[in-house]
Amino acid sequence: MSSGKNPKYIHTLKKVRGLSHEETERLLPVEEKFSFRSNDYYLSLIDWNDPDDPIRRIVIPAPAELETWGELDASHEVDYTISPGLQHKYDQTALLLLSDQCGGFCRFCFRKRLFLEKGRELAKDITGDIAYIRDHPEITNVLLTGGDPLFLSTRRLSDVIQKIRSIEHVRIVRIGSKIPAYNPYRIINDPSLLEMIRTYSTKEKRIYIMIQFNNPREITPQSREGAALLMDAGAVLANQTPLIRGVNDEPGVLSELFRQLSFIGIAPYYVFQCRPTLGNRHFALPVEEAYQIFEEAKKNCSGLAKRPHFVMSHKTGKIAIVGLDDEYIYFKYHQAAVYEDIGKFMVFERNPDAMWFDDYSVPVREKRIEWGKNDVSS
Questions:
Q1: What torsion, rounded to 10 degrees, do the Cα atoms 311, 317, 323, 326 define?
Q2: What phi and psi, each to the nearest 5 degrees, are found at residue 236?
Q3: Residue pLDDT tens, the chain, 378 long
Q4: What is the torsion angle, in degrees rounded to the nearest 10, for the CA atoms of residue 147, residue 153, residue 159 and residue 160?
Q5: Are 259 and 300 in contact (CB under 8 A)?
């Protein structure tokens, strides 16, 4: 096993060596509105001679973030919040917001409101949340997210997972994390984290770690080692990423991301349409352009690498974009807040300027597919 010093976290642009004094001064108004965080490991991946470097674009602020476009809660998570930190949108999945800190702050984060509101939405005392999950036997999955749960201490995370594992009907614990990309040494240098996963990821009840690699250059020797250690400890890994302008919006780049993930045993899971979150206009692509990039990227992938669904995390559910022709765009509810909507097929006239589902007019036609109520997770 390789090891190294834990990366040094950097909380102000003034300490980022790759930025000139003039650049730093120009970005201070952005930093004042939307916080900056990174670490010296992740910043070392940036080619500072390239102003369009994708790693730079992920983590370094840009003046365009001050554009007044979008909203802080683009998917209306507030509508599905049971108590601070607990969401229950889909029958079988409960979501716990455990942290408002990350290994780095993605500039396109759809939950940047957490960093502005300083813990207002977090599950600080999960006693009531655990009771709610225990009282809802339809919940088979609990997703731990934030922020980044792997930014918590292993002791704190272990305590949460132990409480969830005491609930018989919860079969899957998911951990949403970009730590394997931002700071793989969090994994490499903490054997107690791996021991915790061995304890609670069993043959009957697995821990899934939903990683976020956005660009293939994040897949370094260190991040490969971190991922391998997690898998060796019994975790199942899957990757999800938004489709982001300047980061992975070229078919060749997105294809290489899918391929590299499949080579190291990480299943590509979801690709998300960039949510219309405040400050994200310069990251977003029109829905139809993004879909075409996604489909083009899959052409150069094996079957194992072309598994992800391209979806919008809309307030009503995960809406998959499933096709285009000269006149129409085709959608299907991959998952839905209203159970009867799951599988509903919708056809709209094409709109090349649409950035989100709400930008389409009344559907040309829609059909709700009646499958019967099966016990299927998504």
A1: -110
A2: -100, 130
A3: 455 789 999 999 999 999 999 999 999 999 999 999 999 999 999 999 999 999 999 999 999 999 999 999 999 999 999 999 999 999 999 999 999 999 999 999 999 998 887 767 898 899 999 999 999 999 999 999 999 999 999 999 999 999 999 999 999 999 999 999 999 999 999 999 999 999 999 999 999 999 999 999 999 999 999 999 999 999 999 999 999 999 999 999 999 999 999 999 999 999 999 999 999 999 999 999 999 999 999 999 999 999 999 999 999 999 999 999 999 999 999 999 999 999 999 999 999 999 999 999 877 877 665 544 444 444
A4: 10
A5: yes
Q: How many CB atoms lie within 10 A of CB 307?
A: 17
- Secondary structure in 3-state letters for the chain: CCCCCCCCEECCHHHCCCCCHHHHHHHHHHHHHCCCCEEHHHHCCCCCCCCCCHHHHHHCCCHHHHCCCCECCCCCHHHHEEECCEEEEECCEEEEEEECCCCCCCCCCCCCHHHHHCCCCCCCCCHHHHHHHHCCCCCCEEEEEECCHHHCCHHHHHHHHHHHHCCCCCCEEEEEECHHHHCCHHHHCCHHHHHHHHHHCCCCCCEEEEECCCCHHHCCHHHHHHHHHHHHCCCEEEEEEEECCCCCCCHHHHHHHHHHHHHCCCEEEEEEECCCECCCHHHCCCHHHHHHHHHHHHCCCCCCCCCCEEEEEECCEEEEEEEECCCEEEEEEEEECCHHHCCCEEEEECCCCCCCHHHCCCCCEEECCCCCCCCCCC
Tokens (6 digits) for 111: 């939950």
For the entire predicted model, the pTM comes to 0.94
Dihedrals φ, ψ of 96, to 5°? -115, 120
